[in-house]
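Let us work through a complete example step by step.
Step 1: write down the sequence.
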Amino acid sequence: MARSALESWENPRELVLEKLEIKRILCPTDFSEFSERAFRYAVSLARHFGGRLLVQHTVQSALNMAEAGVHSQIQRSREQMRRLMISNAVDSSEVTILLNEGEPTDRILETISRERIDLVVMGTHGLKGFSRLAVGSVTEQLIHLAICPVLVVSRMEDLADPYRADLHLGEQFLKTIVLATDFSSHSDRALAYALKWGREWRAKVVLFHAVEKTSAETRGMVDLFPEYNPYFERQVASAWERIPGLIPEQVRSECEIVYEIRHGDPREEILRVAGEKNAGLIVTGARGAGSSGAPWGSVSCAIVRDGRYPVLVVRELS
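Step 2: predict the structure and record it as tokens.
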């Protein structure tokens, strides 16, 4: 029997060998075009796995808003939910609607815990700078706080839509998966999920690692003497030795595995490899938010913010 996403994995490689099962999917929505695209992905995944889909909208009430005002907003949201399902030809029997009031991040996390959610599917505006702090904050907080994986759907208009009736989910969306790993513990679960998704659709899985030419230990010396970097070649060689060992033998026969080691900024190189490989999905790990709860600046957030590719973010479990 598959374990719940809410359980801690002492050995993430055990997770690789189990069949991918997604029985409970949560799709938070703010009724934007980005959320509607995520809704279509969530519907497709729920149909593929025969799972239960919960669609949640949280009304953010002002401090001085009366109870009648909150009730009115919830009623309007209920009508928007109805239109969302009608416009996407989704039957009410396929969806459980959740309407509540409060801070969206808090309410989503409560739902994940209460309903034992296996996957969250969200849209992103993909905005940069000050404007994204408002519209992107919920998504960027959740990828560091949610105990289950979070699939963030791209904003790009030309992205293949797996909801189209003439496409099977894996034909475009999951032909190639890029997994970004830094060999740390927070990459272990991401690796497991990338391989499980690859096995599910017989996709090509590209295991990618970026070696930064200037390490934290040598940055000062390299700034003074650009030719000085005694660890770089050693790091590249070590990465090539380590990366094939990440894949269990059983998995090698069930999906195509490709290895890529490059040097440069991880954010830039991950996106470059995804473009070159025509990736349908990027999988990356994420650390949990610290005491401040602030995830800004992480590699996973930067890739999500870019917006060109769907990104499956798998948080480490402490």
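Step 3: interpret the result. The chain has two domains: 22-123, 162-318.
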